[in-house]
Amino acid sequence: MKSWWNAFGIGVEALANHFAIAIFELVKDPVKMAKLKRGLEATNEPAHPFLGHDQVQKLPYLNAVALEGLRLGKDNGRSPRVDPRSSTVCRSHLIPTGMVMSVSLKDIHLNEDIFEDPHAFMPKRWMEPKTSKDVYRHFLAFSRGPRVCLGRRLAMAESFVCIANLIHRFDMQLWRTTQQNVDTGLRGLIH
Known about the structure:
single chain; mainly alpha; two-stranded antiparallel ribbon; 8 helices; 51% helix; elongated; disordered C terminus
């Protein structure tokens, strides 16, 4: 039961945090908001005010907004791995059999050697050919390899549809919300 609840909690909490960050950052920045709204308006059919996944899944800026929200979202901890069969050499360091290895997602996603101005909400980083290949390679919000999140495609579809419809259907403004509220309330302590 506990592992089911952990999986459910991660799926709900992580998406809620990333929605809040993405929406906050868009509402805070009228230029980014206008760019996303223009893309959304081009997909809308007046008879159908709800934007479906088929309409929004291929919008590059919406994809970039969703990925940037996930990158800055609350850290879900570490991704521990153990090789119970043999020792491993990693960058000339011997890792003994059975040793737990892990990486902090926050340490990767906020690494300034990988992400220019890592604390800034910059969707364009996912769209620039010279940097997007490197940032995609270091994007670990859903983990990697055999333990990749099984719900990653559903999470991205939900992200596209939710962000698109919130931005498309509502005019929003910040009310008593500051960057500090978001940093401490959702992202935890920023190093």
